[in-house]
Amino acid sequence: MTDTLRELALTPLGPHFAARVTGLDLDRATDGELAAVRAALVAHKVLFFPDQRLDDDGQVRLGRRLGELTASHPVVGGVDEAHPEVYALDSADNGFADVWHTDVTFVARPPLGAILRAVTLPPSGGDTTWADSQLAYDSLAEPVRRLVDRLVAVHDGNREFGYYLAHRRGGRGSVWEDEVVTRLDPVEHPVVRVHPETGRRGIFVNPGFTSHIVGVSEAESRAVLDLLYAHLTKPEHLVRHRWRPGDVVMWDNRSTAHYANRDYGTARRIVHRITLRGDRPRGPGDPWRPPAA
């Protein structure tokens, strides 16, 4: 454990990824403690913080201390006018995330990471599960790694948000990357992403937004994607969280995918999310340099 991480009461939840951080008030954390949180996020990929008292203002303050915030979502507006950065996932307004996905990969620069806060929880159900895309890549057979290292995939937000943009937002979305979103043009990303801070490789396709692999037949694309999705979501690559009031979860969007169970019937589930601005994904064929100290 590095000296920076020693500032946290951190309990790993498995040998490879995810950890619980206790005894830290995120709204009153020192700069040193948040530097440790930022380092732990890269190292462990998913961090769980119980017993927090954040509201929307506190969540935004925390996000700004950890990085640069994006708008709530390229298409969906903020929870209210005072909090354009906060994305409310409300089951009463079709706010579900019951498909495996990595957040907002359908833009050129997907978010670096996310901070999710429990607001209203059902009596039971509504767990969220994360997959470690780097562990999944490492455990692929070497010939398969050689194959996917060379591939590029298309990510298309129209599949999930095209109708919303056209009919509920009148064709005018949020300000994203300093421009108003008026359409969702598909983008290309490497199938294998090299993490910009560690150089580790991870699977960077997801059923929510990836439409196909470039330069191969439809049947070949589907076969490769299905193989990767099945491998990514093997139990040994997963951690599952049962939400409690006061829970806050952070994850590295560059090295994980996630899924929220929709198993709570007519009960209401509300969580609020903010996202940190990221960079353009790079693949194994792109030069990698460690970030400046």
TrEMBL record:
<keyword id="KW-0408">Iron</keyword>
<dbReference type="Pfam" id="PF02668">
    <property type="entry name" value="TauD"/>
</dbReference>
<dbReference type="InterPro" id="IPR051323">
    <property type="entry name" value="AtsK-like"/>
</dbReference>
<dbReference type="GO" id="GO:0046872">
    <property type="term" value="F:metal ion binding"/>
</dbReference>
<dbReference type="GO" id="GO:0016706">
    <property type="term" value="F:2-oxoglutarate-dependent dioxygenase activity"/>
</dbReference>
<feature type="domain" description="TauD/TfdA-like">
    <location>
        <begin position="11"/>
        <end position="275"/>
    </location>
</feature>
<keyword id="KW-0479">Metal-binding</keyword>
<dbReference type="GO" id="GO:0005737">
    <property type="term" value="C:cytoplasm"/>
</dbReference>
<keyword id="KW-0223">Dioxygenase</keyword>
<dbReference type="InterPro" id="IPR042098">
    <property type="entry name" value="TauD-like_sf"/>
</dbReference>
<keyword id="KW-0560">Oxidoreductase</keyword>
<protein>
    <submittedName>
        <fullName>Taurine dioxygenase</fullName>
    </submittedName>
</protein>
<dbReference type="InterPro" id="IPR003819">
    <property type="entry name" value="TauD/TfdA-like"/>
</dbReference>
<comment type="similarity">
    <text>Belongs to the TfdA dioxygenase family.</text>
</comment>
